[in-house]
Amino acid sequence: MTHSATVPAPSLPAAAYRLWRGADPIQKAAILIGLTLVSLAILAPLIAPFDPNSQSLIARLRPPLGFERAKAGFLLGTDELGRDVFSRSLYGLRLTLMLAGLGATLGLMIGGTLGLLAGIAGGRTEASIMAAVDTQIAVPFTLVALFLLAILGSSIEVIVLVLGLAGWEQYARIVRGEVKRLMNMPFIEAARAAGAGPLRIARHHLLPNIVSPLVVQFTLSLSNIVLLESTLSFLGLGVQPPTATLGSMVGIGRDYMPTAPWIVIAPAMMILLITFAVQILGDWLRDGADVRLRAR
């Protein structure tokens, strides 16, 4: 009697190494940029040379090192209150990434759950959910965000909630469409014939097959949420001073652009690098998560 051998699944480091080897130079650059930004955000308390909120009016509006009037120790110069731009950029990066990650995850949970429910249940449930989706798409979300923040305030919890509501309809549409397509597949019919209930079908048969489009949408949503948070902070409705986010630093520094452009350049470059890295990484992760591309 022969026994069939089970091929063990590759370990996480082995899978990551395989994806790295298959990445092109631009993807590898995006990976390194993303890892660098995340590392800077995590290690901000250890790397930042100054307290991000510490003021020194004597040292206000000093340029970065290498320029005339630069002050020793202030690598990227100081802002209008004499605070270290480098330290504030690190802490702003940390908070911006945290808000964007929580907001994108919340949007994924809300939209994914509603899309899954609409695709499986159908009928009035599906019609109600898709009506809410159409309403969300019809109304510019920036106006909704401004209204909610004006009513509820600008606490961290409210901002995360507002960011989480941005883009949930895209998840719902994608998941609902994929579920409707998969529900007609033979393997779903076979699972039903075997007595599998809706919950088991969703967990074991539907969710594994919609990972790839969700990964792509998550990365798109993440970069959009970074820009939305930056926009809200730029307008003064995001995280309130003296706490720094990248958007609030750009918003405050815009008044000093003619005389002290370094206040804006550092956080603006970080926003640009985040959006670039996230977009490229989305394609990279999609290729790794798509079972059809892996099979090839």
TrEMBL record:
It is a multi-pass membrane protein. Its main location: membrane. CDD domains: TM_PBP2 (cd06261). The chain crosses the membrane at residues 29-50, 97-121, 141-166, 259-282. It is found in: Cell membrane. Residues 93-282 form the ABC transmembrane type-1 domain. GO terms for cellular component: plasma membrane. Keywords: Cell membrane, Membrane, Transmembrane, Transmembrane helix, Transport. GO terms for biological process: transmembrane transport. SUPFAM superfamilies: MetI-like. PANTHER family: OLIGOPEPTIDE TRANSPORT SYSTEM PERMEASE PROTEIN APPC (PTHR43386), PEPTIDE ABC TRANSPORTER PERMEASE PROTEIN (PTHR43386:SF25). Belongs to the binding-protein-dependent transport system permease family. This is ABC transporter permease. It comes from Antarcticimicrobium luteum.
